[in-house]
Design brief:
Number of strands: 6
Radius of gyration: 16 Å
Distance between the termini: 25 Å
Order of helices and strands: EEHEHEEEHHH
Oligomer: single chain
Number of domains: 1
Structural class: alpha/beta
Mean pLDDT: 80
CATH class: Alpha Beta
């Protein structure tokens, strides 16, 4: 497990790798996630989990939480919520956290935004269809999962277009420039 802190605001990204066959570094994805949350004005301090699992574990989670059989590429689990600053345009601008959602203290992770679970094996399966590398596919899933935590969805066509535009924007700003 590694923790990346995105400077100002303090957005902590905890990474857990539960698939030993993972063949890439996770630090760039932690940084990408932190930047997306920062841009959407998630209050600080806050903490978000980024978890990589194998197909078997993803199948279990997909069935348990969505009643769907088989693995999927990404799942997002909102915990306390992003608590976006009220002056930002966000579907879930919750405002300042109240009660136990905010963990106080100098070294506190603060608000527990949620967890993003990604299955690199399914991402690899998607690469050919999307014409992308595994690294780029996982980056897309990180951004996609982050947007779900922020309240975006793609059930309706207009929502899907908005979400796809944000994915492209964030990947262009925080992922592709590093190449």
């Amino acid at each position: 497990m590694a923790i990346v802190i995105v400077a100002d605001p303090k957005i902590y990204v905890d990474c857990i790798v539960e698939c030993p066959e993972l063949s890439f570094e996770t630090d760039p994805y932690q940084g990408l996630l932190g930047e997306v949350l920062r841009e959407h004005a998630v209050v600080s301090p806050s903490s978000t989990g980024l978890i990589f699992v194998d197909k078997s574990k993803m199948s279990e989670l997909n069935f348990e939480y969505r009643s769907k059989s088989g693995p999927t590429d990404v799942l997002s689990f909102l915990i306390d919520g992003p608590f976006c600053l009220p002056d930002q345009s966000n579907p879930l601008a919750f405002g300042q956290p109240q009660g136990p959602a905010l963990v106080e203290g100098e070294n506190s992770p603060g608000v527990m935004v949620g967890d993003i679970v990604i299955c690199p094996e399914v991402a690899q399966d998607n690469c050919e269809e999307h014409g992308s590398s595994l690294e780029d596919e996982v980056a897309l899933l990180v951004v996609h999962g982050a947007l779900h935590l922020l309240g975006y969805d793609h059930e309706e066509e207009a929502e899907a277009k908005e979400m796809e535009a944000l994915e492209s924007k964030h990947l262009a700003a925080y992922w592709r420039p590093r190449c």
